[in-house]
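User: I've been going back and forth on whether these two constructs are worth ordering. Before I decide, could you fold them both?

Assistant: Sure. I'll take them in the order you sent them. The first construct and its structure tokens:
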Amino acid sequence: MKKLLSTLCAMLMLASVAGAQGWFRQPTPNDTLRSTVILPNNDVVFQIYAPQAEKVAVMGDLPWDKPAVFRKEENGVWKGRMAGLTDGVYRYRFMVDGVTVYDPKAPNASETSALLTIAPKGDEFFAMKNVPHGAVAERYYWSETLGQLRRLHVWTPAGYEKSADTLPVLYLVHGGGDTDNSWPGVGAAGLILDNLMAEGKMKPMVVVMPNGSIEVPGGDMTAEVPLFARDMVKSIIPFIEDNYRVYTDQANRAMAGLSMGGMETLETTLNNPEMFSHVWVLSASFAPGNKEVYEYERVRLKKEADRYNKNFKQLVFTQGGPSDIAYNNCKETLKLFDDAGIKY
């Protein structure tokens, strides 16, 4: 498991800056915009932030005889209302000055992005190779915490279906603004894991990639963290252990997360150290700039230091150099671990 996490770090660090960009820019109305609002009478309000646009329309599997008429508001948001859609599922896209734009605020917006893979030699750690390939499954579970169906992805190694072996499990969480599709998609996690297995650099295990993004009022990313931590313990882990042949003991359960996912990893494992033996926090820290959170964590770490040292077989923090957008926040977080005498 240590070798697997070490290799995954190479990929994680490449993504760390992109994953955290949203925290360090000028806020816009787009940050909290809902692109589609379904009214009680089934009228739908479509919205898109395009302050420089001259004309906006919406196209797709929508009634052509009742087009939405868009008007731009002072804040740069275009709004158009379509009357009385019947129950069903509709494909749609915006047309902005004649250019097709897939809804950037849709819950699955990241999954409509085209993927560009540059692998000139074909032997890169993320390349598609002629090796035995495992399976990446899309699964749905009921979240007791959120009261809704949620999706996650699960990688199982080649031969898992015919095997009767029980395997260790790694929970791997994406960065802010992404979804559970990000690791097997742009993260190439399935290919990386297949290659590691074929090269004998890891033992068979199940890798679970849950959705760490949760819609919260005001779009406060840090408010998602405790919700996800509760969902992990109450619903995600029980779902995996009920449906996959995995060990259910601490020694065979690990968690890793990038950026916001690293914050969620900290929240989950520090509240439940008896559940995890290996913890990797990648380009992440406690809530950046929140003095109250840091003071709470300072007190908690000192109080629980012996408990963490006893339970975590491996606790790792990793990040890029000073150019990593999480660099200074992570340094401040590590000072708290140092002061508490926690081994990492």
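The second construct, handled the same way:
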Amino acid sequence: MPSLNKNQIQELIPHRDPFLWIDEIVEIGPNRIVARKFVDPALDVFRGHYPGKPVLPGVLMCEASMQAGAVLIARQTESVPAGMVPVAARINNVKFKHMVRPGDTLEIEVELTERLKDTYYMSAKVKAAGKTAATLDFACTAVPG
């Protein structure tokens, strides 16, 4: 049973289908979150990336990581000022290591490594089929919502 289901995730972040890239939160702590996303073969993105040999675009793995990070931040209600929402501010050290195919399930691990005022620094690892598909560092900052 997930720690948070899709409806609970949508209570914490503003993303909605077709751009909600996490289905469930399976683990959450003060500085770490693990989310999952089933990569549905029917996703429209596969019609053009790449026809006949579909691959999930790496940027969507980055987006899934940042959404999981936003849920982690939102769960720390005392840390996000009222009326503010976290948005992506920086992305660094992105490495794509394994292709993600239709039917795979992403496992997204995000760790909060540092906080400076309203900016949150995080590291992420995305796995699919038991292999690391992507790693990245990113930052989110709180802005008026």
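Notes on the second construct follow. The chain has one domain: 6-144. The chain is about 15% helix and 40% strand.
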